[in-house]
Amino acid sequence: MLKLNINGTERQARSAADTPLLWVLRDELNLTGTKFGCGIALCGSCTVHVDGLAVRSCVMSAGGAIGKKVRTIEGLGADKLSALQEAWIAHSVPQCGYCQSGMLMAASALLARNPAPTDADIDKEITNICRCGTYGRIRAAIHAAARVEPPKPLVGAAVGAVVAGGVK
Ligand code: FES
Ligand code: FES
């Protein structure tokens, strides 16, 4: 039995520890906001946060998340929409919507580390793919959210490898 901390709640799953986290989230825990796209860490539709970092859950084992804090799109702004989510709505970012939960998770992780990213920062760090081509509106929404929540000093070395990562 796997014990996982998902969106601040202890959850249990029967899957083997080497099952991709994505399938535990979707198939066992019914957190279907996280999407399957490629299954090989390319598209970013499966992006979640693990201890605050954007991670592609299709290539992370569920066992690897034991003892860590996992956040999915269902846990983002669960009580109140974040400035980023408000900006997403204001800029009408989604088209078909399929990539958008992964985009929001990648963008929120970026803003947590870099509260005022440049276009170059965004392109470098959010490599998620949007087949509808919403990249320009994603950049605009990230900049708008950064203006609402002004930059704070970075604390410690919270910078780590961001697996999700450059809006094209
Ligand atoms: S499903 Fe495409 S990166 Fe995970
Ligand atoms: S909004 Fe359709 S794939 Fe991104």
Describe this structure in words.
With 168 residues, this protein is α+β, with helices and mostly antiparallel strands. It is built from five helices and five strands. It has helices at 21-28, 83-90, 100-113, 119-125, 135-148; strands at 2-6, 9-13, 47-50, 53-56, 69-71. The protein has a five-stranded mixed beta sheet, sandwiched between helices. β3 and β4 form a beta hairpin. α2 (83-90) crosses α5. The longest helix is centred in the middle third of the chain and has 14 residues, at 100-113. Mean pLDDT is 91; it is low at 153-166. Bound molecules: FE2/S2 (inorganic) cluster (2 copies). Residues 36-39, 41-46, 56, 58 line the site of one FE2/S2 (inorganic) cluster.
* Straight-line distance between termini: 40 Å
The proportion of residues in beta strands is 5-15%
CA-based shape: globular
- Ligands bound, unique: FE2/S2 (inorganic) cluster
Oligomer designation: single chain
Number of helices: 5
pLDDT < 50 runs, ≥5 residues: 153-166
Main pleated-sheet profile: 5 strands, mixed
Key attributes of the depicted protein:
5 strands, 30% helix, 168 residues, five-stranded mixed sheet, binds FE2/S2 (inorganic) cluster, alpha+beta
